C-alpha cells in the first residue's frame, strides 16, 4: 500500500479522519424527516491532503490501488472519486489538491464507508483552507455530495453520524430539525456488528426506487413527509406496495421513540420488529442476511438483531449481553454458510 509521499513525492499538508457508523434503529426514515438512532464504529477513513499548485485534483485510494484526476469543481471518474469530488466542489475548494485515502470501514457492507470518505475529505479541506464549517454543515455538504455527485438520493443520517457520533454512545437524531442528543446504550448490553459477506451498492440497488415510492406515498396521503403520519392505519388506504412502504416508515419512527427509554430486552425486541418490517414491508433484506439475523435472534445471549444500512446485503447489528459478543459471533458464524462472513470488531 503506497503512502502519500510515495504517490505524490512529498508529505501531506493535513490529515483528517471520520468513522463509519452502524444504525441501531431508524432505517429508511431519514429521507422522510424521521428519527434515527445510530452510533459510530471504531473503523474509520483517513484522508491525507495537500495543495498541488494546479487546476486539477488528484486522488489515490490506497486500499483499491486506484488513481483519479479531474478538474477543480468537476465530477470524477471512477465512482470512488465522486464522493471526494463532490465534497471538494461543494465546500468551495478552488485550487487543486492531492488526496490520499485509506480506510478500515468495510465497503459495501452498509456501514457508511461513503459518508466516512465525504466527512474525512471535508475535515481535511476545512483544516487546509480554514473553511468556516461546523460539524453539522460538514454533514450537510457531505449529503449533497453523495446526492449530486455520486447519484445516491440519500438522507442525512449517515453523514450526521460520521460527523457527530462516537463509538461509545447512541446519537438520537431528528432528521427534520437536526435536533439531537447522545444516549448511553441499554445497561448490560453491547453492540455486535457482523458483515454478511453479501455486497451491495446503493447506487445500483433499489434504494432510489424505495425513496421514490415513499415520496409518492406522502403525496397521496397529502403530507409533506411520512414523519407527519402517526396513525399507522392511515397508510392502509394506499395501493400496494405503497401501503407497506409507508407502514415501515411510520412504525420505524415509533420504534426509535420507544427505544430511547427501553431496557436491553425491550430494545432488542424493537430491533427484531424493525428487521421484520424491513424484510416484509420495505423489502430491502436478502435471504442470507435473514438467515444470519435468525441465528442471532435465537441465541441465548442476544437481545435482538437486524439488518443495518440500506439493505440488499451488507451488515447486521445485534444487541448482545455485555461481554458475550465474541462468543456469540463465534457460535453464529459457525452455523452460517454465507460468503465472506466476518465480524466487524
UniProtKB/TrEMBL annotation:
Transmembrane segments: none
Residue ranges constituting the GHMP kinase C-terminal domain according to the UniProt record: 260-336
First and last residue of the signal peptide: none
SUPFAM superfamilies the UniProt entry points to: GHMP Kinase, C-terminal domain, Ribosomal protein S5 domain 2-like
Gene Ontology BP annotations: galactose metabolic process
Entry GO terms, CC: cytosol
Record protein name field: Galactokinase
Provenance organism: Deinococcus maricopensis (strain DSM 21211 / LMG 22137 / NRRL B-23946 / LB-34)
Taxonomic path: Bacteria, Thermotogati, Deinococcota, Deinococci, Deinococcales
